[in-house]
Amino acid sequence: MPQHEHMERHRKLHGRRMDAEERDRKKESRLVHKRSEFAQKVHGIRAKIYQKRRFKEKATMRKTIAMHNQRSNQHANDEAVADGAVPAYLLDREGVSRAKVLSNTVKQKRKEKAGKWEVPIPKVKPVADDEMFKILKTGKRQKKAWKRMVTKCTFVGDSFTRKNPKYERFIRPSGLRMKRANVTHPELKTTFQLAILGVKKNPSSQIYTNLGVLTKGTIIEVNVSELGLVTTSGKVAWGKMAQVTNNPELDGCVNAVLLV
Amino acid sequence: MPVYNFKKMSPVPSAPDLIDIVLMRTQRRTPTVIHPGYKINRIRSFYMRKIKFTQQTISERLSKMLTDFPRLNDIHPFYADLCNTLYDRDHYKLALGQLNTARSLVDQIARDMIRMVKYADSAYRCKCLKRAALGRMCTVLKRQKASLAYLEEVRKHLSRLPSLDPNTRTILMCGLPNVGKSSFMNKITRGNVDVQPYAFTTKSLFVGHCDYKYLRWQVIDTPGILDHSLEQRNTIEMQAIIALAHLTCSVLYFCDPSEQCGYTVEQQCSLFRSIKPLFANKQLIIIVNKVDQLPWDEVQPEKREMIEDLGRDANCSIMTMSNISEHGVSAVKAAACDKLLEKRVDARVAGKKVDGVMNRLQVFHPTPRDGVHRQAHIPDSVKQAVADGRIGSADHKPKRSRKGYAETVDDIDKNDEDATMDVSGQLKTARDLMWENGGPGVWAPDYREQYDLKDKDWRFDAIPEIMDGKNIADFVDPDIEKKLAELEDEEEQLLEELAAQRMGEEPDSDLDSEEEAAVAAIRDRKKIIKNISQANRSENKPVLPRSIRGRTKDKHDRGDRNKDVVKDKMERLGVDASIMIKRGRSLDKTRGRKRGISVSRDVEMDNSNDSPGTEISKTQTKKQRRSRSEAAKREASISRGHSRPRDPSQIGLHSDAAVEAAKKLEKQGRRMWEGGAGEGDNRKAVHLVRWMNTGKKRNGTHYCR
């Protein structure tokens, strides 16, 4: 019975075959051809998956190469260092070519110039009532049809209690109620899961706003106290607007972009 | 009998592999075809099943891993500590904990998404939700990439650990590197441990087994330990320390007074002192190794004194040994085993369990009853046989008849035994002789030696093929000519008898040609019938019962019981079938229907007869005629069984009007989705699209709109 590293042990006792290195080398050099053969042969979903993976690999390869290049073009510029005596406040400066940095600042400025309150999804497809509501038949003979069930995701506050069935016109099913939203900070490019505070505006209809329906393009208020954002006056902001970017009823979650 | 066997753990797939496994299983094990036209409940349950199945597969997989991996709190402390040093206890627990969390996360996702699918109102929405659910579950798995990879490595390493039983009889070697622990292991077991002249050749615990006193002993080889504090010890040394700390065993501490190992005797002694607490409650022997290099007597007295001091301190014996000259190897093994065995027996006797056994044991010392000497009874026949030499002990072997056998060594006289015996007294085989005389192809044994002839001298005589102009093979039998003559006589006699039989024989048959033709026809027919039945029987198809088989199927294949077929058959056999058919007709069930129709025709006739007699309007006559024809149709179809519309009262409705109302209602209910594929179909077909159906429909304008 082999104990522990039995492969290494076998190699130590019996060695490797004579052409092992050569075989490894050949295998490696043949790999390219093998891959291309496969890539040409494969089709369907497997092809898509394969191409996507290869694309990713190649992208990372390109990026690493580019990174090395960037490093090389940002080398210290010795000639920029002034000759002779230098005042104390300039002593520890090195001559670095700032071309990259400059271009970045230009980009930044351009970005700031753009509209400050532009909403990420300016145009929203309106949602019709008959798509939004499902008619519930009531009454002993099931012939009254004044009740509606909301078929989209909704936000319902914590303190909400359902009315008496006699007076409850709109039913918001508890299975479709959402409490939290995945909010992306557009500048930080990071996403946080934040509690929803309320629905500010559903562009389709005022009724939807009142009912707290979450559709694509709805403006919601989220609790950003976790992020530690500060208002211009120095107070900690805890409620901020965000716009829903997906169809929550199709995805089962709410994605939103913070409006800054 | 390894108690701890970690080899059974199934491999842990990497995160992408696990995702592939799960999704493929879902694809293969759940239904795949759904149409938007199905009822929405069916669509929902189709997708819910997919989500549920994926979640079940994932949690099944993860639970398998969680149960497979040993829980460090539950296993023997030796293994728990070993796992801690090898794999880092915290890391191990964290990885398993993360898998556990992932499992509960997946469960939660599935629960939420299934709840949402319940409210979905279209196939598209169901599908989107399913896609989101599966995606989120896979993301959870993807995040476990690092833990899964780590656990796979742990599994591989764990499964290759030697199966070591912490509770059995164990001998354990310890000491500095290069003092001869592994060589000793190789001497007493078949462990086949690598032995090299550098430190830390043994990097982990090795296990071998040896036998002593018909018991199985586990021998553990540990890596060398250096003399420094516990915190400074590396993983390799820690394994040795753990084995020392947790196993109850007999410990052999190896010393090398020749100092070939690279450590001085002082260093060896100081190591002994520093790990001395670990020797408590163990059977310790100090082994002075490599005495072939430097015999114990020639060791410098001060060094000897130091080692003997150790023995006195620890209250243990000192033994000398050499792996090269094998001096004292078995003595050391025996001493270690004996010590441990004694301890174990003592412990067992001192323990509680022994009472249960001792209570049941009773030893008797029988006292002699009287002075009579009772001997074994040997039957007289046996005594006689022994005396004759037919049976007996090995020194006088029984003589068996060797008639018909070739001569063997047993038959050779004592005199020529020297020739076939080797110097060592072993018997020489023909094979040995062959190799001595030049190998195969050069020398072969002479089989003529074994010929069984009347005179032994004849054995090697040459046998000619032709002698005196005759082949001697023809004359092997001395009475050959006499036998030949007998044979010829017999043949002649047989021929004569045959001829006599032919003479007195009768002609073949007494039938005339007509009868013979009939017989031939019968035989032919029999043959045909046989062939047909055989052919039918050999066909591999379901056999119908005779009652069904006989019924008429169509005009080409009329059943056996068909009237015409029966008639034909019977006529061929020469039987008049008319009576038979008549009787059959009276029993035929299908004839009832014909009577029914004919009755209705009579009724119709009656009606038509009396109608012209009365004066009624044209429309009324029309109506009457229509109702009459309908009644006739109804009557005709009454006997048709299922297609016959049932009475309103039979359906549960009181009148025809109610039936009409029910029909109308049914139609109305269906109107909701009529034209669509089902109630889940939200698609608007072209003919329902408003812009295509309103406005002018002139030539050339309609399709352009």
CATH superfamily of the domain at 164-350 in chain B: P-loop containing nucleotide triphosphate hydrolases
Which structural class should the secondary elements of chain B be placed in?
mainly alpha
Q: How many DSSP E strands of chain B?
A: 8
> Kindly, what is the distance between the CA atoms of the first and last residues of chain A, rounded to a whole number of angstroms?
67 Å
- What is the makeup of the main sheet of chain A? 5 strands, mixed, barrel
Q: Helical proportion of chain A?
A: 25-40%
Helix content, binned percent of chain B: 40-55%
Just give the CATH class of the domain at 164-350 in chain B.
Answer: Alpha Beta
Low-confidence stretches of chain B: 413-420, 592-613
The order of strands across the largest sheet of chain A is 4-5-6-7-8
CATH architecture of the domain at 164-350 in chain B: 3-Layer(aba) Sandwich
Chains forming the largest contact: A-B, 19 and 24 residues
Outline of chain A, from the CA principal axes?
extended
Strand content of chain A: 15-25%
Low-confidence stretches of chain A: none
Q: How large is the share of residues in beta strands of chain B?
A: 5-15%
